[in-house]
Design brief:
This protein is mainly β. Helix content is 8%, strand content 44%. Strands 2, 4, 5, 6, 7, 8, 9, 13, 14, 16 and 17 form an eleven-stranded mixed β-sheet that branches. The longest helix is centred in the N-terminal third of the chain and has 19 residues.
């Protein structure tokens, strides 16, 4: 192996180690809804963002072409592809899945959509999979759609309808990874808590059953984030597998 190749190999190993042992600072993806408690037959507006800040600045709003899917789940568990007006009353889910996949860094910078085998002199590859959900109501709350597992690689499932909770209540959640209970941290914050990046008001950890409880210490719009990072199954293809899920809702 020549000197240049040896140097690149060492850089790849060091970068992978640093990446795995330091806290994740990737942007998080979530959905906000203009009216978390909307009137019947209304058309609630929504925004999908990719940001470090909550609430996110306008420049962090995602372009539609960066979204793989955007749909809604009605209170009767019916999937709705188009946005409103919503004639059914109850508790809805908004679901957004960005374009996920590989990003590999080499001496020329990050090559989006390519793994280590598809670029020259790869230094570090990550495979990112993000999933966002928001709970909102049309008319009055009702139904069990909010607690429906969607089969995402990682997801946060509220076990109580957030629309029925108020400040001081406890929200139990379950975090799933590949359909199984995930042992991980859940980070939570609310609109107005901090203007600093990557800053959360609440942190807890799931148990072996993937369960955690969030004390709703403030009213307003809440964001929950759960993440997981691990070595990619085939390190000849990529170095790091990153999973992330978000849940937004409103507290009275």
């Amino acid at each position: 192996m020549n000197t240049n190749r040896l140097t690149l190999t060492c850089l790849a190993i060091c970068a992978s180690l640093i990446y795995l042992i330091t806290p994740a600072r990737a942007h998080d993806t979530w959905i906000t809804v203009d009216a978390f408690q909307a009137a019947e037959n209304s058309v609630p507006g929504y925004t999908v963002v990719n940001s470090h800040l909550f609430p996110a600045p306008a420049e962090d709003v995602m372009d539609p072409e960066r979204l793989e899917e955007l749909f809604f789940i009605s209170p009767s568990s019916r999937r709705i592809s188009e946005k409103g007006p919503f004639t059914e009353t109850g508790t809805f889910l908004a679901v957004a899945i960005p374009v996920n996949g590989f990003a590999t860094k080499n001496p020329d910078g990050y090559q989006r959509g390519k793994n280590k085998k598809e670029v020259d002199d790869p230094i570090l590859c990550r495979n990112s999979m993000k999933f966002a959900k928001a709970v909102f109501t049309v008319g009055t709350s009702g139904g069990q759609a909010y607690a429906k597992p969607l089969g995402h690689a990682m997801e946060i499932i509220p076990l109580k309808d957030p629309a029925t909770l108020k400040t001081g209540d406890i929200l139990p959640v379950k975090v799933l990874k590949e359909g199984k209970p995930a042992r991980t941290y859940v980070f939570g914050t609310f609109d107005g808590f901090s203007k600093e990046a990557n800053t959360f008001a609440y942190t807890t950890r799931t148990d072996k059953q993937g369960m955690a409880t969030i004390k709703l210490i403030h009213d307003g719009t809440w964001l929950l984030i759960a993440k997981d990072e691990e070595p990619y199954p085939d390190t000849s293809v990529c170095d790091v597998q990153r999973l992330a899920a978000s849940l937004t809702f409103n507290v009275k």
